[in-house]
């Protein structure tokens, strides 16, 4: 018998506990969405008390006044990773996205590009579709507000809420860039050296103008009590973002929900009043209903999660539920809100020239590389900081040195000459395994439960942290056991290879929502069948009895080099 060395397991003890559990228990990890469904105040508005087999997420529909940047991609990645995880857990999924193509901002952008509004929209929406294809965003519904079925849904929805609307005069501030009406307290006035006064939105910093026009108005204040009850169910997550909602809830008034068609001609006309165009946010928010079949049906509504950036939270947390209440329709189950992305600790800005194009980064670092960094670095409750240098460090340290290198080591012909993923040998394990070996596998057994809890709560970075900790410990195990010295002890060598590959298999299944292509390539290398890559096959570990032939195919993820001035 070969003497087997111990290796330190401090890294495991910080990320695991020795517990064994079954597949069903693993699926029952509480989630943000499920906790909301059973809240009494939320359920009465949802008109449903049963858990659906379908899980549904949405991104906002993205405004097509400019090409997509990493902030748009991050929102889509949150929705996609969540849906992929739910799908791996046995649920059907629905992911709604698309483009918002109406409004004065589109009119102006089209004019600047010497295009008609429709031509301009067609060119930009194509860029979003190309982005989603490049980064494997698996949407089920792509809504364009210029599509006829959506226009029909908006017209029907307007007619449903029209009994609550009235015509009146609006005079106040309007921010065209944000397509939002603002009160005096929501703008900032500044005087330059020449005495000229500029007025900007206090929230976004975008310029504002005074408008005075006759519009249709919607009485938000009529729904104040119902909105308070809805929000008492902690619908907005993380709850810290309610600090952005509460000031609006406390000062609800009449909202202008149309614009004169003489000023905003690019939009959907108000039914029976061609002098007015439906406010772009009413138009845009109805896209969620369009995706669920409205007005012909609303199967599987309400949606589980709207995923939005903090800059548009008020539209989803106040305007949208108020409109739905007016239309007597169920309210969304949750709103998942995320912060913004800075670039080297500075706000992204066209004028500064630091807007990050995801497509150019994909060419240098691969789609999975950028997916990994954004989901690894992004935290819902605080602004993320995009640093190309930091991304390079993450990719080299974690994807190349930790994940890919571990695969290369256990599939190397110098160690694994038979190119096998050996089966688990319980007899050899009982006789040869040290306490540290057992702790490594106990830690692997508990890993899916911890990752599930984090993924279900949109804390993908924490899930990845746990996976990386397990992989680092497995690398430490490999270094300490030194399998290249076990050529004369084939049974123990095969056991060691099995334990390493089993760690890779479980970690790769768990990484599929984050890096789908790399995970698929790794599982292909290990010979794991396509049907065996769901959470049902995670546990118990080492339960397979068949020998698999591996399919080594070069290095999984190659080291990347810093480009230009990456810091």
Overview of this protein structure:
By secondary structure, this protein is an alpha/beta fold. It is 44% helix and 16% strand. The protein contains 21 helices and 21 strands. The strands form 6 sheets. Strands 1, 2, 3, 4, 10, 15 and 16 form a 7-stranded parallel β-sheet that branches. A 4-stranded antiparallel β-sheet has the order 6-5-9-11, with no helix packed on it. A 3-stranded antiparallel β-sheet has the order 12-14-13. β2 (62-63), α5 (70-88) and β3 (92-100) form a beta-alpha-beta unit. α14 (358-365) crosses α15. The longest helix has 24 residues, at 388-411. It is elongated. The two termini are 51 Å apart. The model is unreliable at 6-10 and 16-52 (pLDDT under 50).
Concise overview:
By secondary structure, the chain is an alpha/beta fold. The chain is built from 21 helices and 21 strands. The strands form six sheets. Strands 1, 2, 3, 4, 10, 15 and 16 form a seven-stranded parallel β-sheet that branches. Strands 6-5-9-11 form a four-stranded antiparallel β-sheet, with no helix packed on it.
SSE map:
Elements: H1 10-13, H2 23-27, H3 32-37, H4 40-46, E1 54-58, E2 62-63, H5 70-88, E3 92-100, H6 104-112, H7 117-134, E4 141-144, H8 148-161, E5 166-175, E6 180-182, E7 187-191, E8 197-201, E9 209-219, H9 224-231, E10 236-237, H10 242-249, E11 254-256, E12 258-260, E13 269-270, E14 273-278, H11 280-285, H12 287-291, E15 305-309, H13 313-326, E16 335-338, E17 341-343, E18 346-347, H14 358-365, H15 367-377, E19 384-386, H16 388-411, E20 420-421, H17 426-432, H18 435-456, H19 460-481, H20 490-511, H21 516-525, E21 548-549
Parallel strand pairs: 1-3, 1-15, 2-3, 3-4, 10-16, 15-16, 17-19
Antiparallel strand pairs: 5-6, 5-9, 7-8, 9-11, 12-14, 13-14, 17-18, 20-21
Helix pairs in contact: 6-7, 9-13, 10-13, 14-15, 15-16, 16-19, 16-20, 18-19, 18-20, 19-20, 20-21
């Amino acid at each position: 018998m070969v003497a087997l060395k111990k290796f330190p397991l401090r890294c495991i003890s910080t990320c695991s506990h020795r517990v064994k559990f079954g597949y069903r228990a693993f699926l029952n990890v509480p989630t943000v969405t499920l906790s909301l469904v059973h809240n009494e105040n939320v359920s009465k508005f949802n008109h449903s008390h049963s858990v659906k087999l379908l899980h549904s997420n949405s991104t906002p529909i993205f405004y097509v006044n400019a090409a997509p940047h990493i902030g748009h991609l991050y929102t889509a990645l949150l929705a996609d990773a969540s849906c992929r995880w739910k799908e791996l857990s046995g649920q059907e999924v629905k992911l709604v996205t698309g483009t918002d193509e109406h409004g004065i901002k589109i009119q102006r952008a089209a004019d600047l590009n010497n295009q008609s509004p429709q031509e301009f929209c067609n060119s930009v929406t194509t860029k979003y579709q190309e982005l989603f294809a490049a980064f494997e965003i698996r949407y089920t519904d792509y809504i364009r507000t210029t599509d006829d079925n959506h226009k029909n849904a908006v017209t029907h929805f307007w007619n449903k809420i029209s009994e609550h609307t009235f015509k009146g005069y609006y005079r106040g501030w309007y921010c065209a860039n944000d397509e939002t009406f603002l009160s005096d307290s929501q703008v900032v006035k500044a005087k330059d050296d020449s005495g000229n006064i500029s007025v900007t939105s206090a929230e976004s910093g975008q310029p504002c103008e005074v408008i005075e026009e006759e519009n249709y108005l919607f009485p938000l204040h009529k729904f104040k009590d119902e909105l308070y009850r809805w929000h008492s169910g902690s619908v907005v997550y993380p709850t810290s973002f309610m600090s952005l909602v509460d000031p609006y809830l406390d000062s609800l008034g009449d909202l202008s929900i149309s614009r004169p068609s003489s000023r905003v001609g690019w939009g959907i006309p108000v039914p029976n009043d061609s002098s007015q165009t439906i406010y772009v946010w009413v138009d845009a928010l109805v896209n969620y209903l369009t995706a669920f079949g409205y007005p012909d049906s609303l199967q599987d509504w309400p949606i589980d999660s709207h995923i939005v950036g903090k800059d548009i939270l008020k539209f989803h947390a106040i305007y949208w539920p108020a409109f739905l209440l007016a239309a007597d329709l169920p309210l969304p189950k949750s709103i998942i809100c995320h912060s913004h992305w800075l670039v080297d600790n500075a706000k992204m800005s066209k004028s500064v020239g630091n807007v990050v194009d995801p497509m150019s980064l994909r060419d240098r670092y691969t789609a999975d590389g950028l997916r990994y960094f954004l989901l690894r670095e992004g935290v819902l409750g605080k602004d993320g900081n995009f640093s190309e240098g930091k991304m390079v460090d993450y990719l080299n340290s974690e994807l190349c040195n930790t994940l890919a290198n571990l695969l290369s080591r256990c599939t190397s012909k110098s160690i694994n000459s038979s190119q096998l993923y050996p089966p688990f040998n319980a007899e050899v394990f009982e006789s040869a395994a040290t306490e540290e070996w057992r702790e490594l596998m106990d830690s692997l057994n508990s890993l899916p439960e911890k990752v599930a809890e984090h993924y279900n709560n949109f804390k993908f970075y924490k899930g990845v942290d746990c996976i990386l900790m397990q992989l680092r410990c497995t690398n430490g195990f490999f270094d300490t056991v030194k399998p290249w010295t076990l050529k004369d002890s084939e049974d123990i060598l095969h056991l060691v290879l099995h334990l390493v590959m089993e760690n890779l298999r479980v970690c790769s299944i768990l990484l599929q929502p984050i890096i789908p292509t790399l995970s698929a390539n790794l599982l292909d290398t290990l010979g794991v069948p396509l049907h065996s890559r769901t959470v049902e096959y995670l546990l118990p570990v080492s339960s397979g009895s068949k020998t698999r032939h591996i399919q080594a195919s070069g290095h999984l993820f190659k080291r990347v080099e810093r480009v230009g001035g990456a810091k």
